[in-house]
Design a protein that fits this description.
The chain is mostly helical. The protein has a single domain, classed as Glutaredoxin (3-Layer(aba) Sandwich). Strand 1 and strand 2 form a beta hairpin.
Length: 78
Amino acid sequence: MEELQKLAGSYEALFSKRAQLYKTLGLKDQVLTEDDYKNYILEHYTFLSRPVLVYNNQIFIGNSPKTVEAAQNAIHRG
């Protein structure tokens, strides 16, 4: 987790605010710290944004068209 956090810049960047538990637990109404984000991700996998791709020390998080295109470009450049 720490390596992913270093590449992403924060645990919040790895955290999925689309997870049903995010709404169920009322987390959207709370101010979360980096430790909170880390602990929630470690507690339940649904809090980790997916997919996460690490390639040549670059991290790509999620499946938005922009992220997918950036990952494809990085892989093709090799």
